[in-house]
Write a structure and sequence with these properties.
This protein has 249 residues and is an alpha/beta fold. The protein has 9 helices and 7 strands; from the N terminus they run βαβαβαβαααβαβααβ.
């Protein structure tokens, strides 16, 4: 096993900049960022990742990236040395979520992708981060880089994703589940569900933080990825941890 390989999967409307802090902190040459802009299904994204990734790797996905990560882990568990699931869910899309997604796509075609990013920022970021102009600018810049056509494909992929809950008890790799208590995109109970169902999962909750945890609490995710890289295939003891959200997270 190559213990120094990690594959990071961006979320909806995100680029590699979602993981800027983690990429800068992890050893050079050890990180691959998955392609989530070329396909219109979660299954195809997972297939592309497996074709491009090292033989064995630590896998990290945030939000939509978590949907892809779960599909990769279901399809090729022997290749996933350890797993980080950030602000994500194993559930399929609900009719209400699908309706919101379609409205956002329509907004993007009508007023541009920047309008979508500005509309989403208050929900993507936690209460404190919403006032951080640099973070908001980064969210908008990622959206501009992705563009409306790719955004529409990603939303179609999310709407059509499978229910991964039946797979969770079969995931035998060490797993870190990370969630912010102020996440307005995916409820905290979805992360609790993941941690309860995956045998070797550790749940970490971060008070007051929102959805884009790799940007809002970069040090926490970087530390957890470092632990997974060090642990390799060693099992983690199931536990729940809560961190105080310090000013530098």
């Amino acid at each position: 096993m190559n213990r120094s390989s990690v594959v990071l999967i961006p979320g909806l409307l995100c680029t590699a900049d979602l993981y800027r802090s983690q990429i800068e902190a992890l050893p050079p040459g050890t990180v691959t960022v998955a392609d989530t802009v070329s396909d219109d299904s979660i299954e195809a994204m997972a297939g592309r990742l497996l074709a491009d990734a090292p033989e064995r790797f630590v896998l990290c996905g945030l939000s939509m990236g978590g949907y892809v990560a779960l599909e990769v882990a279901r399809r090729a568990p022997e290749r996933v040395a350890a797993l980080a699931l950030v602000a994500t869910s194993a559930r399929p899309d609900s009719p209400e979520q699908t309706a919101v997604r379609r409205r956002l796509v329509a907004l993007g075609y009508d007023r541009g992708i920047e309008a979508v990013a500005e509309a989403l920022c208050p929900r993507l970021l936690g209460p404190e981060a919403r006032n951080d102009r640099d973070l908001r600018d980064r969210v908008v810049a990622m959206a501009q880089a992705v563009g409306i056509e790719t955004f529409a494909r990603q939303q179609a992929a999310i709407i059509g994703r499978a229910d991964q809950r039946p797979t969770l008890p079969q995931l035998a790799m060490a797993t870190q589940v990370l969630v912010g208590t102020a996440d307005e995109i995916i409820p905290v109970e979805c992360s609790q569900e993941l941690a309860a169902a995956i045998p070797q999962a550790v749940l970490t909750t971060i008070p007051g933080k929102g959805h884009l945890l790799s940007m809002e609490a970069p040090d926490v995710l970087t530390r957890l990825l470092g632990e997974l890289l060090s642990a390799g295939s060693q099992a983690l003891q199931p536990a729940a941890a809560q961190l105080d959200a310090g000013p530098n997270m």
